[in-house]
Write a structure and sequence with these properties.
401 residues, 3 domains, four-stranded mixed sheet, four-stranded antiparallel sheet, 10 helices, binds flavin-adenine dinucleotide
Length: 401
Amino acid sequence: MSDWNNLDLFNPTEEHKMLRQMVREFTQSEVEPQAESFDRKEEFNLELFKKLGEIGLLGITVSDEFGGAGMDAMAAVIAHEELSVSDPGFCLAYLAHSMLCVNNLAVNGSQEQKQKYLPGLCSGELVGCMAMSEPHVGTDVMGMKTKAEKKDGGYNINGQKMWITNGVVDEKGTKADLVWLYAVTGVDEKGRSQLSTFLVDKSCDGYSVGQKIQDKTGMRGSNTAELVFENAFVEENALVGSEGSSMHHMMRNLEIERLTLAAMSLGIARRSIEVMIKYANEREAFGKPISVYGQIQKYISDSYAQYMASKCYVYEVARKLDLNKGGNRVDSDGVKLVATTMGKQVADNAIQVLGGYGYVGEYVVERLWRDAKLLEIGGGTLESHQKNITKDLSRNPEMVR
Ligand SMILES: Cc1cc2nc3c(=O)[nH]c(=O)nc-3n(C[C@H](O)[C@H](O)[C@H](O)COP(=O)(O)OP(=O)(O)OC[C@H]3O[C@@H](n4cnc5c(N)ncnc54)[C@H](O)[C@@H]3O)c2cc1C
């Protein structure tokens, strides 16, 4: 019965503990002070983003051979949780870059592709994004319309991508340096679309920004854009793997995407709980602090218990998730389903505990609540997680243990 009592589920090694401390300090000193104003302006803080490269976060899961920190899924979860305590919008831009583009490339790209892009992506010199969704297709990913046709030593890409985080990096409309793009290259014998993955460089003619999406409910500290591809020509070496291998790339990367989105909800919940406890002990009504009233206690206690339950599940999945393998779909969908609904509910509870003050920007929780909503949609809707989990458990009922 050796070391069980010393096991720290949330910081299993000294390295994880130090990482959490470092990101927490960075968040308090650099991220917190800018969060409210960038949300108000609806702008992405590119300068601050580049600083994440200086502290080794942009290539957190990438081998040091390519300039990364060589860490694991647990480390990625810690970074996303900590950044989201102050600014989930900024953290979403970090996730789109470091998980959706960079980790995808590190796991699925060729040596040549990795050497070409990863050092710049890890340092912050380059900003990356991932383009899967389209104006008419989100959940139904096989229905995408963007096409890549083989042509004289490369591919001609035509189509539109919608809702792309980091699709534009500033207010001048500057494009992301690298797009991890999914497109249709054919149909299989059953008539299903064959999807292939391409690395589209900023220098590619025919790749442009359609529009920066304005007036989002939350996540306003990250930019979201529509991308347009009009006869955008990429050379053959822009293809990742072989034609038709996107499903493999998507399935591997969606697991870390969903896990880190769930981790963002933990940060949102933690901050919301801190805010409501402090407020409930300071605010008086009918001559007593409101924390003595049972209904307020219910908000605080339910929030804490639900947060801790989600946190244990998220960290348990993080411990098991191998970035180079698939096979955790049930639980990566599971953590996102449970943690994102928890995060939104806890932020909502915090607003309720603060009454009118919860409804304005000064106390932060209204921003967290707006940001929390996106996590029930992006990276897979709640309904898509319900669909996947039920499908996988029906096929393999022994997974329920
Ligand atoms: C701020 C923001 C950032 C984003 N960032 C990115 C990004 O970086 N890259 C990217 O590729 N995409 C991104 N997205 C897109 C996001 O992943 C999609 O919005 C999401 O997958 C849902 O797709 P949709 O919006 O087309 O909704 P739809 O798929 O059209 O769904 C509409 C509704 O129908 C439901 N539904 C659909 N199919 C079923 C079904 N079979 N059973 C039951 N219900 C169903 C959905 O759950 C939802 O409630 C982002 C979106 C936002 C808002």
